[in-house]
Amino acid sequence: MFSYNINGMSERETINGTPVTEEQIAAWAKEAETGYDIAALKKRGRGRPGRGAEPSQVIALRLTVDEISALDARAEREGKSRSEVIREALASA
After folding, report:
1. 3-class state of residue 14 by DSSP
2. What is this structure's pTM?
3. Which residues does 85 contact at the CB level (< 8 Å), separation at least 6?
4. What is the DSSP code (8-state) at residue 59?
5. Where would I find the Ribbon-helix-helix protein CopG domain in this sequence (predicted)?
6. In the 3-class helix/strand/coil scheme, how is the chain assigned residue by residue?
7. pLDDT digits (tens, 9 = 90+) for 72-89
8. Non-local CB neighbours of 11 within 8 Å, separated by 6+ positions
9. Where are the beta strands (DSSP E) in the chain?
10. What phi and psi, each to the nearest 5 degrees, are found at residue 6?
11. Which of 2, 15, 24, 77 is close enough to 10 for a disulfide, judged by CB 3.0 to 4.6 Å?
């Protein structure tokens, strides 16, 4: 639960567990007012890297405890993520 001060900001706002200070907010505001280097922002990239030309979708998948154990064991053995193992299984079907 948050409590808000007169400016509407939570008195307990944090970033990765570190409280946000008024000085940080002022510095961020100043940076925004002076403008950002768009080329640098684009170069940095945001989000997960693409997997192809078309957008991908996230789906929910229900697995039993045994299926998850088998999936995790294979992923560990092959040095891959769960998603990589599932995609490879679908590609070979």
Report:
1. strand
2. 0.46
3. 71, 74, 75, 78
4. -
5. 59-91
6. CCCECCCCCECCCEECCEECCHHHHHHHHHHHHHCCCHHHHHHHCCCCCCCCCCCCCCCCCCCCHHHHHHHHHHHHHHCCCHHHHHHHHHHHC
7. 999 999 999 999 999 999
8. 2, 3, 4, 5
9. 14-15, 18-19
10. -60, -25
11. 2
